[in-house]
Design brief:
The structure holds three protein chains of three kinds. By secondary structure, chain B is α/β, with parallel strands linked by helices. Chain B has three domains: 209 residues, FAD/NAD(P)-binding domain; 132 residues, D-Amino Acid Oxidase, Chain A, domain 2 (2-Layer Sandwich); 50 residues, no CATH class. Chain B has twelve helices and 16 strands. Chain C has a single domain, classed as 3-Layer(aba) Sandwich (Rossmann fold), CATH 3.40.50. The radius of gyration of chain C is 18 Å and the shape is globular. The chains are: A alpha+beta, B alpha/beta, C alpha/beta. The interface between A and C is large, with 48 and 53 residues.
Chain lengths: 119, 419, 198
């Protein structure tokens, strides 16, 4: 008897056996970020780039806009933002990818919005 | 706390990332694929985890699968001077009850990446450009590049002084169900063949996301008889041709796979690669330095199945070097030194690969024949041969040199009271 | 859905993304610019590549650097929801950048210049092969007329039967908006009925 196709032989990925991985909701270029508490100054120990991001994100904007406005490469912007989020200094807003039925309402809203804007 | 960036979430990069994390470093992994994309992506060349590497993984709590994976307790080698007259040798893959496993890279890397993040590591999913790296070199104490393909690979110049045997290779591979058991042997056995007429085969019990199956690898020189894929055939046609090649060059293998079937539509691959050693230290446009690891620096000849053994040992060696370096800067001298330290292991592995890659260029040396002949009477010879895959530098002690080989044979015979 | 557990007093906004792909000069940037509420923003990244030929056995590849540009625009759909459009880099060999842009997108538009059909083949092939996100094909009407029918385009570029093909004028805001609406309707009609696994 050799290994053959069997129902139920599929192995459980780590995510099913106790994982709670955050990178399943990664920062993406379109993800919106904002400073968690806009009324406070950036902690002095932050790197200069992180301070600039912190100040810029007092107003909500996307990762790509942060990168373009501060002229920090996209990959670097994401690393700095994920550090800031880890420290609780920056809030990462939900990104709608259309991968789950619960997001369809939002996409329908987007469609209605476009119908209003582009008549 | 020292900040270390690892670019790429492959076998060496993630092993090192976990090692550093367990020693309290601030570790970030940046990689172009999310764990879900790895899981659902294309297969990679099948690799084995030999007993010592498996122990290293267990030390870092990285062995999630050996409870479910087929245990490869033995390996059998077929040497085919002609397709009808194989010489064989069999041995245990580890001492005592140690064993080898072979896990689908997609399962292993995706799980390791998720576990890394859950353990407190930082993961950023984004392709890395040179512009990013220049910036990162100011933000991190050390950058290790662990992604060999694509544009970052160009950071590392070829170094022909370390190894000159660049031989273009082609690999065809398939994961299959319903393999016939080996006649008179346990199913927990791997097979490997080296043929004079075509290339090499590696055939192992294997764990994919769908459970246990077998993985079959056919490797040849580019343009060789087993380079049968210029038209990039569809998976079922590729599998049909692989079976035909086995019928012709390794009939024992064909007998086992003639009724086997692909596990799914994305379980085959064809890959072209050229073994090479590159300079381990990459220089960025800004002057910043990055350290290449494992297959970024060394493309192993796939004939010897040493890919993950190499990457595990390289990661472990780098980890030791980084820890011992303490708080001193990771300068050019450190980076070059870290690689040299690993190369003490890496160079003998290249010699082992060289031997395998050129096995049939001449007649098999007489002392090989003697060892093969004696292995039938003395299983410990086969055991040492197979366990050499776990630690190839051991071959230097007894296999390559006729005098050492004969001394070893005498020692074995004497131990059996026949000296 | 929310990737950070913060207190609820932060006003949450959401964003989503559409990818605008196509061959060099097909009208991607024009489309992004005509529908965006901000001037299209261009970002650049420097790449190294080994300038080897197709034979990678040559011993010492020469290193060269290339600058890759991509641009994006934005539409504020309502107070909470922002839609971004990202144009892919023209150099199709930098696939990993495409992957970054495509990851998490609700869909893609492949802009086709009918005078240079072949330039769009790689983009169509990318979405046909990966099948990660829904996409539509938009034929850019440069001089007010089209040289091919949708059926001819479908055959030439090997576009699946279910993929909508529309024609539009990339310079015209309303025409560009229609393309985006078509994509969203198509994405909604293709949306998953059950939660994805993994």
């Amino acid at each position: 008897m050799s290994y053959r196709k069997r129902r139920g032989s599929r192995i459980r990925p780590y995510t099913f056996t106790g994982g709670r991985t955050r990178s399943r909701h990664p920062l993406m270029v379109q993800t919106l970020v904002s400073t968690a508490d806009p009324s406070t100054d950036a902690p002095a120990k932050l790197m200069p780039e992180s301070q600039r991001i912190y100040r810029l994100c007092r107003e909500t904007r996307s990762v790509a806009e942060v990168s373009a406005e501060l002229k920090i490469p996209l990959g670097v912007t994401q690393v700095l933002l994920s550090d800031l989020a880890e420290l609780g200094l920056v809030y990462i807003h939900p990104t709608i990818t259309g991968n789950s039925p619960s997001e369809n309402q939002v996409l329908e809203r987007a469609l209605r919005g476009l119908e209003r804007l582009f008549q | 706390m020292r900040k270390i960036l690892i670019v790429g979430a492959g076998h060496s990069g993630l092993h090192l990332a976990h090692g550093l994390l367990s020693h309290g470093y601030d570790v970030t992994v940046i990689t172009g694929q999310s764990s879900l994309e790895i899981r659902t992506g294309r297969p990679a060349i099948t690799q084995m985890t030999f007993p010592t590497a498996l122990e290293y993984e267990r030390e870092l709590h990285l062995d999630f699968w050996s409870g479910q994976a087929p245990r490869i307790e033995e390996f059998k080698i077929h040497l085919y001077p002609t397709p009808s007259q194989p010489a064989t040798l069999k041995g245990r893959t580890g001492k005592g009850n140690r064993y080898t496993v072979s896990i689908d890279r997609r399962v292993k890397m995706a799980d390791w990446l998720e576990y890394f993040e859950d353990s407190g590591g930082k993961v950023v999913i984004h392709g890395v450009t040179l512009t990013d790296l220049d910036y990162f070199s100011r933000m991190f104490d050390l950058i290790v590049v662990a992604v060999g393909h694509g544009e970052l690979g160009a950071l590392f110049d070829a170094d022909s002084s370390r190894f000159s045997g660049a031989r273009p290779r082609v690999v065809a591979q398939a994961h299959v169900y319903d393999v016939a058991p080996p006649p008179g042997e346990s199913e927990n056995i791997g097979w490997a063949a080296s043929t004079a007429d075509a290339g090499n085969m590696i055939f192992v019990p294997f764990l994919t996301a769908d459970g246990p199956c077998h993985s079959l690898f056919l490797g040849d020189k580019r343009g060789g008889p087993m380079d049968a894929w210029p038209d990039r055939p569809r998976p079922d046609e590729q599998w049909r041709r692989m079976q035909e090649l086995l019928r012709k060059y390794a009939p024992e293998y064909f007998e086992r796979v003639k009724d086997a079937a692909l596990i799914d539509g994305s379980s085959t691959l064809v890959e072209y690669l050229t073994p090479q050693v590159r300079n381990p230290v990459g220089v960025l446009p800004s002057g910043g330095l990055v350290l290449g690891i494992a297959d970024v620096v060394i493309t192993m000849d796939p004939f010897v199945g040493q890919g993950w053994n190499h990457s595990t040992r390289c990661a472990r060696s780098y980890l030791q070097s980084i820890i011992e370096h303490g708080d001193r800067p990771f300068d050019a001298e450190f980076l070059a030194g870290a690689f040299e330290r690993f190369w003490e292991y890496g160079l003998p592995v290249q010699r082992f690969a060289e031997l395998n890659s050129t096995l049939w260029d001449q007649e098999l040396p007489p002392h090989f024949q003697e060892l093969l002949g004696a292995s039938a009477a003395y299983p410990q010879i086969g055991d040492r041969w197979i366990q050499g895959w776990d630690y190839p530098p051991d071959f230097e002690n007894w296999l390559y040199d006729p005098e050492l080989a004969r001394a070893y044979l005498q020692e074995v015979a004497a131990a059996h009271g026949e000296g | 859905m929310v990737s950070n557990d913060f207190s609820s007093d932060i006003p949450t906004k959401m964003s989503t993304k559409i990818v605008i792909a196509g061959g060099f000069g097909a009208g991607k940037t024009t489309l992004v610019g005509s529908v965006s509420e901000i001037p299209a923003v261009t970002t650049e990244a420097v790449m190294t590549e080994a300038s080897v030929g197709h034979d990678d056995t040559s011993a010492t590849p020469q290193k060269v650097t290339t600058t890759v540009a991509m641009d994006f625009g934005r539409i504020t759909v309502d107070q909470q929801l922002i839609l971004y459009m990202f144009g892919t880099p023209g150099q199709t060999r930098f696939w990993f950048m495409w992957d970054d842009l495509v990851r998490g997108a609700v869909g893609a538009v492949v802009v086709v210049d009918c005078r240079r059909l072949a330039d769009s083949f790689e983009a169509v092939d990318y979405f046909e092969t990966n099948r990660r996100i829904p996409y539509i094909v938009a034929m850019n009407r440069f001089d007010g007329r089209l040289e091919y029918t949708a059926d001819q385009i479908r055959e030439a570029l090997e576009v699946s039967a279910s993929v909508p093909i529309v024609d539009f004028d990339a310079r015209d805001r309303s025409s560009g908006g229609t393309v985006l609406k078509t994509l969203l309707r198509y994405a909604l009609s293709n949306s998953p009925v059950a939660a994805p696994v993994g």
